[in-house]
Write a structure and sequence with these properties.
- This protein is mainly alpha-helical.
- It has 2 domains: 42 residues, no CATH class; 77 residues, no CATH class.
- It is built from 5 helices and 2 strands.
- The protein has a two-stranded antiparallel ribbon with strand order 1-2.
- Strand 1 and strand 2 form a beta hairpin.
- Helix 2 packs across helix 5.
- It is elongated.
């Protein structure tokens, strides 16, 4: 079963759907072999960025997403007070730093998905 999963993932990396006829074609194709239409070039950086953003967002639970949406509206000091480890007392703890890093990744992924799906 693992081998078929790897093959599927490898195939997904090498193929795409034709935007005109929806047939699966090679990613590098410039003309669809089925409908014979010219294809727009693939922006590899955009594809990789979108995949990373989608993977990150899929790794979060709904409660994590709700928490991060709440945290976006708060200041860093308010978020630190919400920390169950230090309650915002004293220096920033490792949990606060990890939360800030993950929040930053969440905001970046959300911005990427918004920017690329609005076009």
């Amino acid at each position: 079963m693992l081998a078929s999963t790897v093959n599927y993932e490898q195939q997904e990396e090498l193929t795409r759907k034709c935007p005109y006829c929806a047939e699966i074609i090679k990613k590098e194709a410039t003309i669809c072999r089925y409908c014979k239409k010219d294809l727009p070039p693939i922006n590899v950086d955009r594809e990789k960025t979108l995949k990373e953003a989608n993977t990150f967002m899929a790794s979060l639970s709904d409660s994590d997403k709700e928490k991060f949406e709440k945290y976006i509206q708060m200041t860093q000091a308010e978020r630190r007070k919400d920390c169950f480890a230090c309650r915002g007392e004293g220096a920033s703890c490792a949990m606060c730093e990890a939360t800030e890093a993950k929040l930053s990744s969440y905001i970046e992924a959300k911005n990427v998905l918004t920017a690329y799906t609005d076009k």
